[in-house]
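Entry 14. Ran structure prediction on the chain below.
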Amino acid sequence: MNTLPLAGLKVLDLSRLLPGPYATLVLADLGASVDKLEEPEGGDYIRQMPPLRDGESALFYGLNRNKRSITLNLKSPEGRDALKRLVRGYDVLVESFRPGVMDKLGVGEAVLRAENPRLIYCAISGYGQTGPDRLKAGHDINYIARAGALGYGGVAGGTPAFPGVQIGDIGGGSLFALVGILAALHERERTGKGRFVDVSMTEGSMAFLHMHLAARLAMGDQGQPLQRGREALNGGYACYGLYRTQDDRWLAVGSLEPKFFAGLCERLGRMDLLEAGYDLGAGAERAKAELARIFAEQPLSHWQQLLEGSDLCIEPVLEGDEVLADPQHRARGLFVEVEDAQRGRKVTHLLTPLRMGDNPLRPPPDLGQHSREILTEAGFSPEQIQALGHK
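Output, structure tokens:
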């Protein structure tokens, strides 16, 4: 059995919903020991969110395998004191409260790092810990809107394209939290000291525009503002876009390089479209309209057969459960069925992208399931554990 790269790392997760829990899921899949600290009444809000299976949220289930759960009331002096004692035994703490909440509770970064100077404290928030909007409420769609990412996608002159997936939460929040945590761990090897990691989901979302915004800044007065649907990679090029088929399915055409688009034009018998594929003006609109007409004449299966083996950067847009049957995903072992003895059923898990060894998949915890176990490991006596409300 391979040793997992983060074996021995201890993480205390105070976060809720998606950004923090997905980050700690990746850490857990890489071998870290992740303990989820939740409120005694209800716990992580996502526990109550549908869809439900046997009264349990499938969303919570999918985000919290390989974790333990402890409940503490951080609004009580006893709960806060317990957290300060607990944190001495952890390497990383992750939280996703609004800026200042942990300080108001008396267990902010300065207090906890006084208890454990090696602690890496990661705070994930919508707009970051500083700035005029740091206390604003928001959700994924708000963060990508403020980052400019939402406004960059969609048809020119039309509505911004609703992404349907949580770009700000995962891309802007979870992944940058992981980068920050791992960088701080590396630094701690040299210095012996922990660090505060401030993750803004809005700023993280802006990273998806980095190439375009950085180029805009580099051009200065000679450049033009970014435009929805009019640039090379957001709908301007005919060789790089989405096309509907006769049966209301879609093809994702990414034939960006001339050799790929030339191959497509050859397959379609329309070499006259080659030059227009890289036009951003009227020629592009004519080429896009002509490609749309051609692809709409046949169903998706026809185009898959015609293009099979061509390697021209063209893929069907998978929908519904099609992604679960995709042979590439299956070959990579992305979906793993395991027996959940705790719930008496088999469950299929979606693995996180980084897999660096064998890690048995343990089911997500019931609320407070491991409270006594975690507190005992931290040196709490049976009487102290009972005083915290754990029988």
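The longest helix spans residues 167-191. Will compare against last week's run tomorrow.
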